[in-house]
Specification:
Layout: H1 15-31, H2 36-63, E1 65-69, E2 75-80
Antiparallel strand pairs: 1-2
Helix pairs in contact: 1-2
């Protein structure tokens, strides 16, 4: 990218930080006010950010547990959520 500022490593970013930067990139690209070279650079970073967000969401889904119920309707414990 044309900016001289050092950008954070995508692999170290939280979901919220990656998503916020990705939204900024989308807004910038949609505005049409960036030259071709910069557009290519920020699009490539946007792809990395999207991949990071997807990976973090999958990790979160894997950690979610569903509550199991006993025959009387009371909570019986938890078990891993099966994600298709």
């Amino acid at each position: 990218m044309a900016d001289d500022k050092k950008q954070p490593d995508v692999d170290d970013m939280s979901f919220e930080a990656a998503l916020a930067e990705l939204e900024g990139i989308v807004n910038k690209l949609e505005s049409g006010r960036v030259d071709l070279e910069e557009s290519i650079g920020i699009y490539e970073r946007g792809e990395k950010l999207k991949t990071r967000c997807d990976a973090l969401l999958k990790q979160a889904e894997a950690r979610i547990e569903k509550i199991t119920l006993k025959p009387d309707g009371s909570a019986g414990g938890t078990e891993p959520l099966e994600v298709e």
